[in-house]
């Protein structure tokens, strides 16, 4: 009579997250950072769209987390205000867009998702290059701004730790290596009568 051996049970999800956090804690530190370059606003048929490039540097902790199945949520944030000398600046619009970076072990591919749309990549570097390119994101309707007036545009990209697993947040929120965000890039924006929006220099 043959004896059947019971298959080992998989560890609970919470334990996997805890083990990942401990593993990441002993990895060598290397600076993680995001920097913004070349932001601009361009007129479109229905409004205005912002484009920009970012430099994104990961450290081994973030690379290990993604490879082990932790989904990272990156948020683009855009704000437009109108300066007022007699009062606080007037907020014209505030927009955000989230992209999710994940790794799928079965296909051995990295995935970038925005809403229901996604792209797959063979390497993390390829996925990060696409994440770093923001193109033609419509943030304004034409009726929201007046030609000839001066506005202040602001843009940044950050890693949103609040959307990570709760068990993982305990260590990540207190670890500076996980506080990954660019500084706010700010530049002047003056819509023209022809509907063109000249680019300004970020400061």
Description:
- The chain has 203 residues and is of the alpha+beta class.
- The protein has one domain.
- It has helices at 13-25, 60-67, 124-131, 166-172; strands spanning 33-43, 47-57, 72-82, 90-104, 109-114, 117-121, 133-141, 151-159, 185-189.
- The strands form 2 sheets. The chain has a 6-stranded antiparallel sheet with strand order 6-5-4-3-8-9, with helices on one face. A 3-stranded antiparallel sheet has the order 1-2-7.
- β1 and β2 (47-57) form a beta hairpin.
- The N and C termini lie far apart (78 Å).
- The relative contact order is 0.22.
Broad shape: elongated
Helix content percent band: 10-25%
Largest sheet: 6 strands, antiparallel
Beginning-to-end CA distance, first to last residue: 78 Å
As an assembly, this protein is single chain
Portion in beta strands: 35-45%
Q: Describe the strand arrangement of the main beta sheet, using strand numbers.
A: 6-5-4-3-8-9
Structural class: alpha+beta
Radius of gyration: 21 Å
Order of helices and strands: HEEHEEEEHEEHE
SS elements, strand count: 9
The total domain count is 1
Number of helices: 4
Calculate the mean pLDDT score and round it.
81
